[in-house]
Write a structure and sequence with these properties.
This protein is of the alpha+beta class. The longest helix is centred in the middle third of the chain and has 25 residues. Helix 1 crosses helix 2, helix 1 packs across helix 4 and helix 1 packs across helix 6. The strands form three sheets. Strands 3, 6, 7 and 8 form a four-stranded antiparallel beta sheet that branches. A four-stranded antiparallel beta sheet has the order 4-5-9-10, with no helix packed on it. The protein has a two-stranded antiparallel sheet with strand order 1-2. The protein has nine helices and ten strands.
Length: 293
C-alpha cells in the first residue's frame, strides 16, 4: 500500500488494468463494479479512505472512480455501456510501466507507452510457469521407452485382446445408463434461480416525487421495485419531471447492502439526466447493475 491516498489511487488504477488484462488472458468476464472491487481488495483503503461520504460512499472509492478518467484519457481503458474493456495500449501499459511508481508518473504526465513494448499475450507469471512445465516435461522419461517384445510375443496377445474386448464392451454398455443421472442433475442445477433479496429500492433524490416522505430513504414502499420471477429482474416505472437525478440501489429497505454505478457495492451514485416523462429502471441482482428504459 502507498503512503497516501494519491499513491494508493495510482496503485489501484494499475490494479484495474492488471485485472482487466488477466480477464482477457483467462477468458473471464467481469463487470466494472467487480473490477473496482477487486482493485480495492488488492489495495485496501486506509482509515482516511474508508470514511463514508454522503450517500454512504467510501472516500477512497469516489476518488478511484473519478481517477479512472485518467486511464480513459491515456487510451488505456474504454468505458462502454456494457462495461469496461482494456485496449492494446492498456495491455502494453501493464508491462511498459511494471512498477506502480513508473505507472503513476507516466499516467500523471501523459507519457505514452514506449513504442518498442509489444502487446503481451499472457501474464509474465503464467509464461514462466508454462516454460517450467515444458522443461519438466522434456526432462521426464517418455512412456514409449518400455522394453520391446519379440514379434512372436506380440502376435498372440492380439487374440487374447479380442477375447477380452467383448466383455469390456458389455460392461461399458451396462454402466452407461448410470451416467445419465449426473447429467440430469447438472441440467436441473443450471436452471436454478438466483437467490434474491427480500426487497430492492431505488433510493435517491427523487423519492419525494414518487410519494415517499423523504429522499434517499430505502425503507418506504414508494421506492420499492417489483420483481419478475420469470426474467429474474426488478423494475420500477415512474413519471419524472425533466431534470438531473442521482440514486442508488438499496436492498432489504436499508443501506446495509447497496449498489451504485457499474454495479459496485457502496459505489458512486447512478446518474439520470431525464428529459421528462415516464422512465423505467431495471435492476439485475446477477450483475448488481441497472438498465434505463
Amino acid at each position: 500500500m502507498g503512503a497516501n491516498t494519491a499513491e494508493n489511487t495510482n496503485l489501484r488504477l494499475k490494479a484495474v488494468l492488471d485485472i482487466l488484462a488477466e480477464s482477457v488472458w483467462s477468458g473471464a468476464t467481469m463487470n466494472a463494479g467487480e473490477v473496482l472491487a477487486e482493485s480495492i481488495v488488492r489495495v485496501p483503503f486506509n482509515d482516511h479512505e474508508a470514511e463514508l461520504l454522503s450517500g454512504g460512499i467510501p472516500r477512497g472509492h469516489k476518488t478511484l472512480t473519478s481517477a479512472s478518467a485518467k486511464l480513459v484519457k491515456a487510451g488505456w481503458l474504454v468505458k462502454g455501456r456494457s462495461g469496461w474493456t482494456i485496449p492494446e495500449d492498456g495491455l502494453r501499459a501493464t508491462v511498459g510501466f511494471p512498477d506502480a511508481e513508473a505507472f503513476g508518473a507516466a499516467l500523471d504526465a501523459g507519457t505514452p507507452v514506449p513504442a518498442d513494448v509489444a502487446v503481451p499475450t499472457a501474464p509474465p507469471v503464467k509464461a514462466q510457469v508454462k516454460k517450467a512445465a515444458a522443461a519438466k516435461k522434456a526432462a521426464a522419461p517418455k512412456k514409449t521407452a518400455a522394453p520391446k517384445k519379440a514379434a512372436a510375443d506380440v502376435a498372440e496377445p492380439k487374440v487374447a485382446a479380442a477375447k477380452v474386448s467383448a466383455p469390456k464392451a458389455k460392461a461399458v454398455a451396462k454402466k452407461a445408463p448410470t451416467r445419465k443421472a449426473p447429467a440430469k442433475a447438472a441440467a436441473a442445477s443450471a436452471v436454478e434461480t438466483l437467490p434474491q433479496p427480500d426487497a430492492v429500492a431505488i433510493a435517491g433524490d427523487f423519492n419525494k416525487i414518487l410519494g415517499a416522505a423523504e429522499d434517499w430513504a430505502p425503507q418506504y414502499d414508494e421506492a420499492q421495485m417489483e420483481f419478475n420471477p420469470i426474467v429474474q429482474l426488478w423494475t420500477l416505472t415512474a413519471e419524472l419531471p425533466a431534470g438531473f437525478y442521482t440514486y442508488k440501489i438499496a436492498l432489504n429497505r436499508s443501506w446495509d447492502e447497496n449498489y451504485g454505478a457499474f454495479g459496485a457495492r457502496d459505489g458512486a451514485n447512478h446518474e439520470l439526466n431525464h428529459d421528462g416523462g415516464p422512465v423505467t429502471i431495471t435492476y439485475s441482482h446477477a450483475t448488481r447493475d441497472i438498465v434505463i428504459g
